[in-house]
Amino acid sequence: MIFESQLTELLHRRPVIMQFMRFACIGFLNTGLDFLVFNTISKALGIFEGLPLGVVTFFSFTMAVIQSYLWNRTWTFGSEEARLRTNAVRLIKVGTLGVIAIILAIGGSKFQLPWYYFLCLLAFYLTIETYLWRGFGFHLSDWNHESHSFMIFFIVTFIGLSINVTLVSLVSLNLHLFQNPDLDKNIAKVIATAVSLFWNFTGYKLIVFKK
């Protein structure tokens, strides 16, 4: 109990710690969605490298960005203040869903499974995510929408999108570690996602949701 009390006090004094942990878990969640959409479309259309793959990642990354805004605006940088144990459970749930989605997406790529495998995963993922969102008690109607804030968000995420698309296109053309194009394209995706996520957190924290 003493440790829990001290940890609660620390998180209260330094809210950036909890914000970062939430953002990290949401990052896994966003990456999971990104990878599932990315693989569903690329497999269905038979796209494995170059600019066409960059176009596919444009769409999948955009879906992840929209999701990112919803979760970060409501949870990471919102006014919600749950108890320590509640926060811990929520972090585990959100992070676990994202990690499982990523593992299953990359695993499906490794074994070159068909596009409908990824589509089924995507449907299951969205169902669980909706359950979590509602279970956390989040409602879009609670927002205080600000057009200025959203415009800044758009600019920051557009830069992140440009970074993501450019890196996927370049890395997929120049990095071939395996005799498996599905696996190589996902490695390119991992590198691009890591760089763009770092940019997004910095922009969200210091610019978009600055209080």
From TrEMBL:
The GtrA/DPMS transmembrane domain, residue ranges: 22-132
Protein's cellular compartments: Membrane
InterPro entries noted in UniProt: GtrA_CellWall_Glycosyl (IPR051401), GtrA_DPMS_TM (IPR007267)
Record's GO cellular component terms: plasma membrane
GO biological process: polysaccharide biosynthetic process
Membrane disposition: Multi-pass membrane protein
Predominant localisation class: membrane
Keyword Zinc: no
UniProt similarity note: Belongs to the GtrA family.
Protein name (Swiss-Prot/TrEMBL): GtrA/DPMS transmembrane domain-containing protein
The organism of origin for this protein: Candidatus Doudnabacteria bacterium RIFCSPHIGHO2_01_FULL_45_18
Phylogenetic lineage: Bacteria, Candidatus Doudnaibacteriota
